[in-house]
Amino acid sequence: MQVVDPPVLQLPFTRRRGRLPHPMPGPPALFYIFAAAAQAAVSPRTPITVTGHQWAPFISPMGEPFRARTAADDTLANWFRQADRNRDGLLTAEEMVADAERFFATLDTDGDGQIDPDELAQYEYEVAPDVQVMSTTKRPPGSPPLAKPKATDEPALPPSDKQERRERRQREAEQEASLGLGGALQGAARYALLDIPEPVAAADIDFNRAITLDEFKAAAISRFTLLDRAHQNRFTLAQLEALRPTPADARRGAKRDKDAPDTRVGNPLPPRE
After folding, report:
1. What pLDDT, on the 0 to 100 scale, is given for residue 159?
2. Pairing verdict, β 65-66 and 58-59
3. Among 106, 76, 78, which Cα is nearest to 216's?
């Protein structure tokens, strides 16, 4: 019986010569082998779907944003249930101060007992960018986005003088509203119960560019007093619901008396003499 030696293989990129005991699988076979091994090594995972909504948040009296995940979410009620620690349906000054202390701890990232300018900037740009003045006012949760004009192949007609004047007045009204002119709300006040455009910075009573815990707690007591319209040292969720500001879309186009006193809730302007 004649014994045949296995084939001699020239190894690539080397001058070595060797013998393979079995034929080497071709490229297609290697591809399927590696693909099967990779699939077995990675465990299947459920894909994560994230849906973002440009809905208006609720800004708590101390400045904490509460955002709706669905159209049915009541963000004001979410804050109330969080602050109402004993779940009796009534919010007291002690509970509001305790909730302010909790939120203060999240803003005081370095734990030095005060909110410094860097931490305040982080709040305004990362935690609650909705408090920024000149930012676009968001629509209430569940409301559909504004309809865009349908595209058409027909050439657009030049606007008439009446249409140009109407569009110019609308742009000027939107600019005045964003600046808070004519009694419009601005900053966090658009989504809050009190007319305080920046609730965290407003707690800096001595204007030294640092908010201490004592200042934050004092601000919580002061704002509780503004919300306690019935002077009962407590209030319910229904009483707070009545203090919510009117959505910006409902006020659009309404004529305002510039000489009328400011009736916005919280920090009212003094009447003219």
Report:
1. 66
2. antiparallel
3. 106
- 208 within a domain of the structure (yes/no): yes
Which structural domain, as residue segments, surrounds residue 188?
58-136+173-247
End-to-end CA distance of the chain: 124
For 178-212, give the secondary structure using H, E and C: HCCHHHCCCHHHHHCCCCCCCCCHHHCCCCCCCEE
Element of type H or E holding 224:
helix 213-227
- Quick one: CA torsion of 60, 63, 67, 73, rounded to 10 degrees? 0
Q: Tell me, yes or no, whether 107 lies in a domain.
A: yes
Q: What is the pLDDT of residue 142?
A: 67
> Is position 71 within any domain?
yes
Residues in the chain where the model's pLDDT stays below 50: 9, 11-14, 20, 42, 248-254, 268-273
Q: Are 120 and 244 in contact (CB under 8 A)?
A: no
What total number of domains does the chain contain?
A: 1
Query: pLDDT tens for residues 62-101?
Result: 999 999 888 888 999 999 999 999 999 999 999 999 999 9
CA separation (Å) from 53 to 57, 133, 141, 144, 154? 10, 20, 8, 10, 33
What are the C-alpha distances in Å from 163 to residues 170, 182, 194? Answer: 11, 24, 37
Residue 262 in any domain: the answer is no
Query: With contact defined as beta carbons under 8 Å apart, do 61 and 193 qualify?
Result: yes
- Residues across the chain: 273
Give CA–CA dist 106/85, Å, rounded.
Answer: 18
Q: How far apart are CA 30 and CA 12, in angstroms?
A: 17
CB 74 within 8 A of CB 90: no
Confidence (pLDDT) at 164: 81
